[in-house]
Amino acid sequence: MAAKKSSSRDEGEKNETGAAEAAPSFEQAVQRLGEIVEKLEGGDLPLEESLAMFEQGIRLSREAQARLDAAEKRVEQLLGFDENGRPLVTPVETE
């Protein structure tokens, strides 16, 4: 029986106990980023905890940016026109 290979994107982020978590929504990622920034700006965290939070913030930032890029691409597809000025009717790829 072949083992199924899965990527971290498929199984979500691992929490501290090693269990998989679903990727946060865009809004959840932005909210969590705000919380991380507040804590880091407070300057009261030990170095290792600050680094761990910074790493989490970078991951969340990249995920949120990827979602924004995908949304922008979808909007461009929906608002696109061909060389004759007709609206494009290309199927939109979803995640």
Question: What's the architecture of the domain at 24-79 in CATH terms?
Answer: Orthogonal Bundle
Level-1 CATH class name of the domain at 24-79: Mainly Alpha
Supply the number of helical segments: 3
Strand content: under 5%
Class by helix and strand content? mainly alpha
Global geometry = rod-shaped
Residue stretches low in confidence (pLDDT < 50, at least 5 long) are 1-14
Per-chain topology:
Elements: H1 8-11, E1 13-14, E2 20-21, H2 26-42, H3 47-79
Antiparallel strand pairs: 1-2
Give an overview of the whole structure:
A two-stranded antiparallel ribbon has the order 1-2. It has a domain at 24-79: Orthogonal Bundle (Helix Hairpins), CATH 1.10.287. The protein has 95 residues and is mostly helical. The protein contains three helices and two strands; from the N terminus they run αββαα. Mean pLDDT is 79; it is low at 1-14. The chain is rod-shaped and about 60 Å long. Helix content is 57%, strand content 4%.
Which keywords apply here?
95 residues, mainly alpha, Helix Hairpins, two-stranded antiparallel ribbon, 2 strands, rod-shaped
